[in-house]
Amino acid sequence: MGILGSPSFVTLALALCLLLNVAALCSSGGVTSSYVRKVEKTLDMPLDSDVFAIPPGYNAPQQVHITQGDLNGKATLVSWVTMDEPGSNEVRYWSENSKQKKLAKGKYVTYTFFNYTSGFIHQCTITNLEYNTKYYYEVGLLNTTRQFWFVTPPQVGPDVPYTFGLIGDLGQTYDSNKTLTHYEMNPRKGQALMFVGDLSYADHYPYHDNVRWDTWGRFIERSVAYQPWIWVAGNHELDFAPELGESVPFKPYTHRYHVPYRASQSTAPFWYSIKRASAHIIVLASYSAYGKYTPQYTWLEQELSKVNRTETPWLIVLLHSPWYNSYNYHYMEGESMRVMFEPWFVQHKVDVVFAGHVHAYERSERVSSIAYNITNRRCIPVKDNSAPVYITIGDGGNIEGLANKMIEPQPDYSAYREASFGHAMFDIKNRTHAYYSWHRNQDGYAVEADSMWFFNRYWYPVDDSTTH
Ligand SMILES: *[C@@H]1O[C@H](CO)[C@@H](O)[C@H](O)[C@H]1NC(C)=O
Ligand SMILES: *[C@@H]1O[C@H](CO)[C@@H](O)[C@H](O)[C@H]1NC(C)=O
Ligand SMILES: *[C@@H]1O[C@H](CO)[C@@H](O)[C@H](O)[C@H]1NC(C)=O
Ligand SMILES: *[C@@H]1O[C@H](CO)[C@@H](O)[C@H](O)[C@H]1NC(C)=O
Ligand SMILES: *[C@@H]1O[C@H](CO)[C@@H](O)[C@H](O)[C@H]1NC(C)=O
Ligand SMILES: *[C@@H]1O[C@H](CO)[C@@H](O)[C@H](O)[C@H]1NC(C)=O
Ligand SMILES: [Fe+2]
Fold first, then answer.
1. Within 13 Å and on the Cβ side, how many CA atoms surround 129?
2. What percent of the chain is predicted at pLDDT more than 90?
């Protein structure tokens, strides 16, 4: 019998627990949900599904999607695809109050991937919009014109309420469709969606069949044509396939989903920031270099120094690969980025970090591991009131299925975890309070499976832990 199994070791360990309360040895963390989802295969919806229907009419615009087009929310970037010919590059738009139509002119691109050739991908930024205003917009020509609308955010400012939805790792299965429906039907009414990476999962198919990028664009149109989705690049956007002659990473993603990265002085679309209502949102790239001296590192250092909590009280970070994850899936993949950036997040009092990648749900306590310096042994996460809450929301429901194996016992830093598909809402009330809720797909639309009142780290840095 080895030392670990010997009675004296057990006694010693117990004594240590009592005397020193050594967290890693004896205590377990928060809640591992007792909800057990029925194990089913997640299957992609077939190509002839209703959600993939091609809009009628010659060269009709399809895959219409919008995102914020500038730093402050006075511009909207509209994108759509035409399949037969380029067609019109223009967006006609008008505000609810003035029926006078205006025109914005865009550009289109095409790309090839192995033996796939894309349609004509249009990108057009509408600028100088009024805040807090409903706009209608039209794309296409004559008999194939399609009309949509969106509402611009309120002017950036400290106490403007705003509700963000959260979805990650969506894919295009029957479960993905349930997640999207639950988001649309949520009575809290998301006004913009933060999408934490891994979009279509087209790379699951032989030759990364990019037809699945097109079907995904048609699937999500029913939401993203009407409210901006804020994009984060995940590993399924890499589409790195040298064996197919495709060795430029992110090719389909960067052609299809543009983001306003230049507005925040970024030099690449994978890391950037926007301000929307009372939130300053920083998007980071788990799959672009982030070591010291890299473009992303130097950009983030400057970006954090620009955050003005008087203007935008809420500091939110989005990235794909989580830093605090107690599932066996993708375990510690986010560790190297955590080592680089975590001290800055604590110093600048980031309120919350949302990640995807792990196909399940998890919410952390406010903890940090920044004391550790390789020689001092202080390598256990500790409660830290200036640290963000880390939320893994990679539970959109893609074809790879659920992550349901967890590290046991639940570590102290994990406040709540559950292997179910769902989405979340971050509902900012004012500069001090935001209400957060997580909704699993098996429940009614209004049901909250997990929730938390967030107290702003800058304006109201009171302990907001749900477990103590
Ligand atoms: C739309 O207009 C084009 C050109 O005028 C015509 O060829 C086509 O048949 C029309 N399509 C529909 C669905 O009306
Ligand atoms: C691409 O190549 C694959 C393998 O040869 C083939 O099955 C597929 O039909 C081709 N697709 C197109 C659009 O040519
Ligand atoms: C997807 O969800 C929508 C809305 O609930 C529904 O109308 C549609 O039939 C669903 N499609 C599939 C293929 O599940
Ligand atoms: C921060 O924002 C407030 C409100 O917009 C403004 O009055 C102040 O000058 C800004 N501070 C800095 C350092 O820019
Ligand atoms: C590591 O941390 C310890 C204690 O926090 C400190 O005394 C020591 O100087 C640090 N080592 C280095 C190389 O910074
Ligand atoms: C901020 O919102 C919270 C929650 O709705 C509320 O309790 C609080 O009174 C608000 N603060 C102010 C200053 O209005
Ligand atoms: Fe991922």
1. 32
2. 90
